[in-house]
Write a structure and sequence with these properties.
Blueprint (H helix, E strand, L loop, with lengths): L2 H4 L4 E5 L6 H10 L3 E5 L5 H7 L3 E4 L25 E4 L1 H9 L3 E4 L5 E9 L12 E8 L1 E5 L4 E7 L6 E6 L4 E4 L11 H12 L12 H11 L5 E4 L4 H14 L3 E7 L7 H12 L4 E4 L1 H7 L6 H27 L4 E3 L4 H6 L16 H4 L2 H4 L2 E3 L7 H11 L3 H4 L19 H20 L8 E15 L2 E14 L7 E2 L4 H14 L3 E6 L13
Parallel strand pairs: 1-2, 1-3, 3-4, 4-11, 12-13, 12-15, 13-14, 15-16, 18-20
Antiparallel strand pairs: 5-8, 6-7, 6-9, 9-10, 10-11, 17-18, 18-19
Helix pairs in contact: 6-7, 7-14, 16-17
């Protein structure tokens, strides 16, 4: 464990067995004001002892404990005397390693919402009802608890299956369901009960209290050095830039690359905000280069790759120009956050865990530029970065800005990306955003935007015929981006947005509203 984690005092270590929900466990623990980190399950008991966590969580995972190459746990970890919570696969592994019996489900796997019945009063379920709704996602079941363990809950349906257990000492717990997902309505209360009542943790983790510590760490690390940071106008890079500027002042050079793929008025907004923050922003107009690279490209993954490669080339060229003008640059500051690290496999995930997606700020630029990499937000989640941003005095237009895809509007123009299509989408998106704000919903919706579709539709234009583009509007509620529900926007809002888009943009003849949740759809169209 590094200096950053040591400074946070009491903390929890999550061993990741490849679950798609591991990031949600970490996020839930931190929401309960207890610091945590994610590590691979290959850590030995000695390594865990040296790191010094106050408790352990074993995540779920896609494997069966009886598969020959299934991830295991160092048996000596059970002898450290640390409170331990196994979730799903973690519970099955505890049962299997400590002498219980795990079997394949006699029927198909349990997946989705289920009810459990609590059969024994326990601190884990303090303040909860005898019956609770939970989220299940597993194929194996525990047929027999290990010696010295007692059942705490069973599934309410038939056949009756073990849903929670603990050992006689009250140190080792297992739950078959996932308390970390919002589909388990009282899951956060269960985790709070475990952290506070069972582990005895006080919950004093406050990311906003880190401002002074982060600034001092950056000052120490970058003493006498000059640094470069690419800023997008989003909260992550903006917070990283302000923190670093407080530490080293004008020895930090923020660079904004205008790709031409941003929302209407975005470059001007970024310039204005950074001027107000007192950071000298260097703006690079690379619009022509990006559009040239995207000519004829329609596949979403090829778009992403083309944009990433072009950004690296432009940024590398600007870095070298800066070195010629001002002298050597020593470090590259990036706004990498903890969810980027975990999704890109950088947190040391379990064998068999899939890389969700590669993030450009987890590994694309440093190798090319040869600078020392500095990531001051690497141990924080998005909501923690937002709180840090507020503590730094960043304006709401940055701190509360809805998520925006790294490739920009290129993945919201379905099909080939051209300057004309981007301009059209920028205007339609701006109208939609204006109407959402007019309805007072801009802070109530997690994400909302317009999409330009590669289809044409017939329309009536006065006494004549029109034939133009179709625009799709999308608005979703989400806690973490892993699942999302479409927003039931007021009909009056949709009517105003549709009327304005089709009247103010003659190239658009039809507007539709996307009512797909995630899953099965994704939030972005590409």
């Amino acid at each position: 464990m590094g200096r950053e984690a040591e400074a946070k005092g009491e903390w929890v270590l999550i061993l990741d067995f490849g679950s798609q929900y591991t990031r949600l466990i970490a996020k839930a623990v931190r929401e309960l004001e207890v610091y945590c980190e994610v590590a691979p399950p290959t850590l030995s008991a000695r390594e865990v002892r040296e790191r010094g966590p106050r408790a352990l969580v074993l995540s779920g995972g896609p494997r069966s404990v009886y598969e020959p190459d299934a991830p295991r746990l160092d048996p000596q970890l059970y002898e450290l005397g640390l409170p331990l919570l196994g979730i799903c696969y973690g519970m099955q592994l505890i049962a299997q390693q400590l002498g219980g019996r795990v079997e394949r489900s006699p029927r198909q796997a349990e997946y989705g919402v289920a009810d459990i019945e609590i059969v024994r009063a326990d601190p884990l379920f303090a303040g909860l009802s005898r019956k609770e709704r939970v989220w299940m996602s597993h194929g194996d079941v525990i047929a027999e608890v290990p010696p010295g363990f007692v059942p705490l809950a069973y599934s309410a349906g038939e056949p009756r299956r073990l849903a929670a257990m603990r050992d006689a000492t009250g140190q080792i717990y297992g739950v078959q369901f996932h308390p970390e997902v919002h589909h388990t309505p009282h899951g956060l209360q269960m985790l709070r009960n475990w952290l506070r009542g069972i582990c005895g943790l006080r919950g004093r983790w406050r990311p906003q209290d880190l401002v002074g510590q982060k600034v001092q760490e950056l000052r120490d690390r970058l003493r006498g050095k000059r640094a470069l940071i690419a800023v997008s106008g989003g909260v992550d890079s903006s917070v990283a830039a302000v923190l670093t500027h407080r530490a080293i002042g004008d020895r930090l050079v923020p660079v904004f690359v205008d790709t031409g793929l941003l929302r209407k008025g975005e470059p001007e907004r970024v310039r204005r905000v950074f001027e107000r923050l007192g950071l000298p922003l260097r703006v690079v107009d690379a619009r022509r280069e990006f559009f040239e690279r995207l000519k004829g490209v329609t596949d979403p993954e090829r778009k992403r790759k083309a944009i990433g490669e072009t950004f690296i080339r432009v940024f590398e060229r600007e870095a070298r120009r800066l070195e010629r003008e001002r002298g050597p640059l020593d470090a590259l500051v990036q706004g990498t956050i903890y969810s980027d690290v975990i999704e890109s496999g950088g947190a040391g995930t379990a064998h068999g865990a899939e890389r969700i997606k590669s993030h450009h700020n987890v590994g694309g630029l440093p190798e090319r530029l040869g600078f020392e990499l500095v990531e001051p937000l690497r141990d924080l989640f998005k909501d923690e970065v937002r709180r840090l941003g507020r503590a730094l005095g960043l304006p709401a237009e940055i701190v509360d800005e809805p998520p925006f895809p790294g490739p920009g509007l290129a993945v919201r123009v379905v099909g080939e990306v051209t300057p004309e299509r981007v301009r059209l989408l920028q205007e339609a998106d701006a109208i939609f955003r204006e109407e959402v704000a007019r309805a007072g919903l801009q802070r109530a919706i997690w994400q909302y935007f317009a999409v330009l579709l590669p289809v044409r539709s017939v329309a009536v234009r006065g006494d004549g015929r029109g034939y133009g583009y179709v625009v799709a509007l999308r608005a979703v509620h989400s806690r973490d981006g892993m699942t999302a529900d479409w927003v039931k926007l007021p009909y009056e809002l949709l009517e105003r947005a549709s009327s304005r888009i089709t009247n103010e943009l003659p190239e658009v003849t039809r507007v539709v509203y996307d009512v797909t949740s995630k899953p099965p759809g994704t939030i972005e169209w590409e």
